[in-house]
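Proteins fold reproducibly. Look at a sample protein:
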Amino acid sequence: MNILETKRLTLRQFTADDAPFIFELVNEPSFIQNIGDRGVRSLADAIKYIENGPAASYVRNGFGLYLVQLKESGESMGMCGLIKRPALDDVDIGYAFLPKFWSKGYAVEAALAVKEQGRSLGLKRLVAITDPANTSSIRVLEKLGFTFEKMVRLSAEDIELKLFGVEL
């Protein structure tokens, strides 16, 4: 079932059937560099990633990361959604796409739909975090109306990340 739809994209909840795509996405060198190594080394690990991450968030929060697909072909291209992290006061928006889908406006398009979802859920504010070296992600956030607020660490052993915010 589609959760969100844009002109070119559909966003829906992940299921165990999406494990091959998750395996590909989270092992992409750009994902590991910009977001982190999620330790997904097999399809079984990918299923656990879906169950313990997005699927658990749907139940706990009523939202989570969604699979982003091209409306025209149904091809899986990335993920985008809302995340409630214990280390952050506000809900944050996250996204990741396979490199072949970069620089085509898909991240902005998907994230605008997710931002609207946040507003419809009654959220007053969203944040986003990114590696300071990830200039592409920073440009996406700026196009979405987010502004840089401060540097944060999600945990003591994590790198410092840029935190951006936007009022809804």
Q: What stands out?
A: The radius of gyration is 15 Å.
